[in-house]
Design brief:
By secondary structure, this protein is α/β, with parallel strands linked by helices. The protein is built from 23 helices and 14 strands. Bound molecules: adenosine-5'-diphosphate, magnesium ion and zinc ion.
Length: 639
């Protein structure tokens, strides 16, 4: 059901509803007798004969098919027939079941001759069989139609096709994957060339394609083909694009669907869709299955089942886990998934043998942004002198999707001004527009913000470089990542125990960011949230659990009982702990400020370097501050 999912012009649902409404309306009007609120009763044939002979009957309506007749009683005689007062204008009739048409005919002829009966006899071509069928089944039909309507609503209702068609009710448990067959859609396909930057991610994904194309090469050496890879990264960085490129380049069938396609109102649907997906995939193996936005199903399962848990989603996830275990390692199905919330995924999904490979797709840095600009500038008519480098510089923190947006917006702005090509000014106003629109939502930053973040990150780097026990620095960046606006990477040393000095130095380096902001911009910002959180937790654990302060030496108030609402220490101790935490952090903050003031010049150089290059490595820091005078800790231990 991939591209040949054309809309059938067939019976539109709306018409079906109108039809049902009309039928019901007709039935309603017709079922009531034409005499409105007339009095009526059933009578036997003998009674009927008596009424006719007494001249009470005005007209007769005969329904030969059912052998019934309806005798309309004269208004003034109705009271006698019904033994109660009846308004002559109201009308009245009796319903009678008779034996044979001939006998009835003879009787009526005789009575007409005797002038007992002078009215008309009308033979009715009955539709009452139909009427009664409709009466019996109409409501049922109505319910069915209503049910179909609800089903369609819930399953997205994106198809005008026939009931039971691809999206119909009878296929609720079928997987909704889009299948791109081998070699299909050659002309529209996305290739790796369309994905700019992301070299690391591209390479890993290409390797997966390679596994499928040439599995023998790997299995001969005893290697196992991976089962799944997870593309993780912020929105708009090209995860879906990469998967599309895989579909375009891999010479195998490619199933693609979104995590939310599993989720349905009905219990069990998700799980059966998962089963169906894997059944199809096994038939087509070797193949690739891509689940976009997998967090819709892969969210961590609730810890306490029953309370606010989503059982349906959990059973879908369980089914997915089971299926991923179910196919053998070399059965030739490789799962790809994308998410921007790897942190909320269930741990079981990420364990070895499932999505054990994580491919990080991060926001692009300066050079990558340039490459992405080049991809998206291709289809535009641009001014020859346009400086792509400048554009890349003007767009710190932009994702690939934002850049695509800038290019499009610039073209629209140029068109609005009736230009023949898109110029630098158009691009700059597009950038402004997008910054204005996105600022609050994403991590796009202004030049001022960029400088503050650079100051902050340079603060961490400067302080840690000049502290003996801080972890050695690897890389500093101001490209936003996750919740943080920038990041400094350290090489954590493998160690079993940590000394108090190491902890204090790390705390000091962590506070270096805010200290730099305060010293060099004059105000402090929200950018230090994560730092402060880490420092506070660290200080509490040092003082309350590790007994590392002078005021509370060698005391551990750690309590490993999960639900303990009572503190294992007195009110007084609690106050003391708080005071010690405050003191420890204030001390380290002061120490960070002292180091920064001491190394002010180096810090300024580092900041400028960060603003220019966005990413700097340990060598650059070394170039500014010189080699660290201390041996690295591992050497220290050896010596
Ligand atoms: P997500 O990571 O949220 O799945 P998408 O893959 O849907 O992001 O990217 C959205 C759009 O942004 C793409 O269609 C493409 O136009 C553009 N884009 C994102 N990253 C890149 C990139 N690395 N190279 C070229 N274009 C990109
Ligand atoms: Mg996506
Ligand atoms: Zn920081």
């Amino acid at each position: 059901m991939s591209s040949n999912n054309k809309k059938k012009p067939g019976l539109s649902l709306t018409w079906l509803y109108v039809g049902v409404a009309l039928v019901l309306g007709y039935l309603f009007v017709n079922s009531g007798d034409s005499l409105g609120g007339a009095a009526s009763k059933t009578a036997n044939y003998t009674e009927f004969k008596k009424y006719v002979q007494q001249g009470y009957v005005q007209d007769i309506e005969v329904n030969p098919k059912e052998r019934t007749l309806r005798a309309v009683i004269k208004g003034d005689k109705a009271g006698e027939v019904f033994k109660q007062r009846i308004d002559p204008k109201q009308g009245a009739y009796v319903e009678v079941q008779y034996g044979s048409d001939e006998k009835l005919q003879d009787f009526l002829d005789a009575e007409q001759e005797k002038k007992h009966f002078t009215g008309n006899v009308e033979y009715k071509q009955s539709d009452s069989t139909l009427t009664s069928i409709l009466w019996n089944f109409g409501p049922l039909l109505f319910i069915i139609v209503f049910w179909i309507f609800i089903m369609r609503r819930m399953s997205g209702g994106n198809s005008g096709g026939s009931i039971g068609g691809p999206m119909g009710i009878f296929n609720v448990g079928k997987s909704r994957a889009t299948l791109v067959e081998k070699g299909e859609g050659k002309d529209t396909k996305v290739t790796f060339k369309d994905v700019a930057g992301q070299e690391g991610a591209k390479q890993e994904v290409q390797e997966i394609v390679e596994f499928l194309k040439n599995p023998k090469k790997y299995t001969d050496l005893g290697g196992k083909i991976p089962k799944g890879a997870l593309l993780v990264g912020p929105p708009g960085t090209g995860k879906t694009l990469l998967a599309k490129a895989v579909a375009g380049e891999a010479d195998v069938p490619f199933f693609s669907l979104s995590g939310s396609d599993f989720v349905e109102m009905f219990v069990g649907v998700g799980a059966s869709r998962v089963r169906d997906l894997f059944r199809q995939a096994k038939e087509k193996s070797p193949c690739i299955v891509f689940i976009d936005e997998i967090d819709a199903v892969g969210r961590a399962r609730g810890k306490n089942p029953g309370i606010g848990g989503n059982d349906e989603r959990e059973s879908t996830l369980n089914q997915l886990l089971t299926e991923m275990d179910g196919f053998g390692t070399n059965s030739g199905i490789i799962m790809l998934a994308a998410t921007n919330r790897a942190d909320i995924l269930d741990k079981a999904l990420l364990r070895a043998g499932r999505f054990d490979r994580q491919i990080h797709v991060d926001l692009p840095d300066l050079n990558e942004r340039k490459a992405i600009f080049e991809v998206h500038l291709r289809p535009l008519k641009i001014d020859e002198t346009l400086d792509v480098d400048l554009l890349a510089r003007q767009t710190p923190g932009f994702s690939g999707a934002d850049i695509a947006n800038v290019c499009n917006e610039a073209a629209l702005i140029a068109a609005r001004h009736d230009k023949t090509c898109v110029t630098k000014d158009d691009f700059l106003s597009a950038v402004d527009r997008i910054i204005g629109g996105l600022e609050k939502k994403t991590k796009v930053m202004t030049a001022g913000e960029k400088r503050t973040i650079a100051l902050h990150e340079a603060g961490h780097a400067t302080v840690s470089w000049n502290l003996q026990h801080a972890n050695p620095l690897v890389k500093v960046t101001i490209v936003p990542r996750g919740q943080a606006l920038g990041a400094a990477w350290y090489m954590p040393e493998e160690r079993q125990i940590t000394t108090k000095e190491q902890m204090l130095d790390e705390m000091c380096a962590t506070l270096g960011g805010r200290a730099a902001e305060e010293l060099f911009t004059g105000h402090i910002s929200s950018g230090a949230l994560n730092d402060l959180e880490r420092v506070t937790k660290q200080a509490y654990s040092m003082i309350a659990y590790l007994g590392m302060s002078e005021a509370l030496p060698n005391l551990c108030y750690y309590d490993n009982q999960e639900y303990n609402f009572q503190r294992p220490y007195s009110e007084e101790t609690a106050r003391l702990i708080d005071k010690e935490v405050q003191r420890m952090i204030a001390e380290q903050y002061q120490r960070a400020k002292t180091i920064l003031l001491d190394k002010q010049e180096g810090h300024a150089q580092l900041t400028q370097l960060l603003v220019d290059r966005e990413v700097i490595l340990a060598e650059d820091v070394e170039g500014i501050f010189g080699k660290r005078p201390w041996a690295s800790r591992s050497e220290e231990l050896m010596g």
